[in-house]
From TrEMBL, chains A, B:
This is TetR family transcriptional regulator. It comes from Streptomyces alanosinicus. InterPro entries: Homeodomain-like_sf, HTH-type_TetR-like_transc_reg, HTH_TetR. Residues 42-61 bind DNA. One of its GO terms (molecular function) is transcription cis-regulatory region binding. Residues 19-79 form the HTH tetR-type domain. The keyword Transcription applies. Keywords: DNA-binding, Transcription, Transcription regulation. Residues 1-20 are annotated as: Disordered. Coiled coil: none annotated. PROSITE patterns: HTH_TETR_2 (PS50977).
Length: 204, 204
DNA sequence: GACTTCATGTACCACACGGTACATGCGCGG
DNA sequence: CCGCGCATGTACCGTGTGGTACATGAAGTC
């Protein structure tokens, strides 16, 4: 009765509702963080925002650090889901696939997530531990499918890797531009210019 | 004798040594911030690091906010100086100019500054007020010289703008890739691929 | 040589933070 | 109906923060 908190939340002691509550909390936390940033997050404010006392966040996640790890992981998963959920009808030209992907990425409803992405990058580059694992997958995780697409399109492996890396970097750079300036038309035009260079001027 | 601090540092009351001291402090602060990040900066730690009491930082800058403004502004100025100090001998092909600029930007000694750039971006995208002014100049300030270079190379204005925007975004995306992965060779290869697409395969 | 000015330091304040101890109350097994 | 386990809340603690009041001492002035 002295200490009734399970010191190992997430262990086998958690079943059913408890696990549900936990993921429900982390979902709400990601939403809040996508909207308000991760920089000056405090357990108290987060708790107040999602309707729980900061005590419970500690209870479910052990510490602020672990909660942040969970938030970052979940946010990453959401990002990746967005790509994998992109089921394309076959017969589309690569340039059109890219254009479609760009359209989805720049959906204003995703702006919060994209901002969060760059914010987490900034923190991770500083060595903030809970954001550091992101750096690993930041490039490589996205590279694999892109390389696959390039090789399928007939590029030799080395070129495919460079081209994939280039495409990823350009998309991110333009995304940053869009978030900073909000100049949708200008950024879209730059993207079109890129597609022209990347896939050739003929849209097959 | 009650309050001997000038409430308006930077006003006409500051002359000579005072102003020098101030800029000396902000220089040291930028160095420290480039090395240790801006996220969890505290006046006390910064003061200890650069050899001054946190009291004096308040004295010279009025508040932490204003100090951060100064730091960001100075860091920006340094970045831009880096570009303008790039006096190139004429007769270089645009692709070679770009390659040279890329070499300088990716100098490991600049890694701290580059990281700081992305960190500030992340914060600014969140609406942190002292970083917000950065967003304005983040694209446009760099676009002007690039557009000038493109038009000089014979592109029509609209295309020049899109191409400039694209080049800037790609450089930044690849810079982020480099900082995250450290894979210098891979990123350089992607850059070469971009230059090939951007300026054509022939290196005049 | 007394007076003033001002840069700098020391000690302090109120506050918000992460984290902990303890209370409370709900839901379920007997 | 009881009793226990557990989710949740409240009150607290130590710490570090930005910012302020006041002390101190070294220059410069008349």
């Amino acid at each position: 009765m002295v200490n009734q908190d399970d010191p190992r939340p997430g262990s086998e002691a958690l079943h059913g509702t408890d696990r549900d509550r936990r993921s429900q909390l982390v979902d709400a936390a990601v939403d809040h963080v996508a909207a308000h940033g991760i920089a000056d997050l405090s357990l108290r404010r987060l708790g107040a925002a999602i309707g729980v006392s900061h005590r419970m966040l500690i209870h479910y996640f052990g510490s602020k650090e672990q909660l942040l790890v969970e938030i970052v992981r979940t946010s990453e998963r959401r990002q990746r889901d967005l790509l994998s959920r992109l089921h394309l009808e076959p017969g589309l030209a690569p340039a059109d696939v890219a254009r479609l992907l760009w359209q989805r990425l720049t959906d204003p409803r995703l702006a919060g997530q994209e901002r969060l992405f760059f914010e987490i990058c900034g923190q991770a580059l500083r060595g903030r531990p809970e954001a550091a694992p992101v750096l690993e997958g930041l490039v490589t995780d996205w590279l694999e499918p892109l390389v696959a697409a390039e090789t399928a399109a007939g590029a030799n492996p080395a070129t495919a890797r460079s081209r994939a890396r280039l495409g990823l970097a350009t998309v991110r750079g333009l995304l940053l531009d869009l978030l900073a300036t909000g100049d949708r038309a200008g950024v879209d035009a730059a993207m079109e210019e890129f597609l022209r260079l990347y896939y050739g001027s003929d849209r097959t």
